[in-house]
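Dissemination and training. As part of the outreach component of the grant, students in the summer workshop were shown how a complex can be specified as a set of sequence lines and then modelled as a single object. The example used during the hands-on session is reproduced here so that future cohorts can follow it. Participants entered these lines:
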Amino acid sequence: QITLKESGPTLVKPTQPLTLTCTFSGFSLTTTGVGVGWIRQPPGKALEWLALIYWNDDKRYRSSLKSRLTITKDTSKNQVVLTMTNMDPVDTATYYCVHPKWLLGQQRVGGFDYWGQGTLVTVSS
Amino acid sequence: DVQLTQSPSFLSASVGDRVTITCRASQGISTNLAWYQQKPGKGPKLLICAASTLQSGVPSRFSGSGSGTEFTLTISSLQPDDFASYYCQQLDSYPLAFGGGTKVEIK
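and obtained this result:
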């Protein structure tokens, strides 16, 4: 059974960095095709894909946030960490850790089939 | 970057209605599209991947179609449990992107 859980601060001051940790179980980030990603949703707004890291350490980022985002993995701890620098009130959102569904026949991600419960991060002084 | 435009952004429908949501991509994405359902206060649920492949456990009243730049999610007979928001997502190229969402409410 796959589970993911986000942890980190619920309140961040403007200009400060945000560090979120995703702790997962039920799969290994050393297995071909496996990855872990982050998606956020500002209150009342649409979903925004942020970043994705694969078993082979391939990393992908949202274009508009690429300079502010870093995603890393610790396979021994079954954790993925997302860091976002220079936080702003517009970054206030629920942040979700997600597991991509790997389409074997196509060797690509087909969607995100498991989601963490989400963690609301508020950026305010 | 690929942009997705969903329409309508809001629709009001009755139980039993046939509902269709459209997602248009700014460039061709083959069938690399997923659909999600999100209920208030909950994380999204993957309904369909590869434009038309229903996830295990998703009722057969949901169906997806399309390829290239135009896609549809159809609910053949709307049930009370289906009142929610729906999002499309392109997975053809990075950065991955979501549509703006469609909120389905009870008429």
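The longest strand of chain A covers residues 93-103. Students were then asked to discuss how this feature might be tested experimentally.
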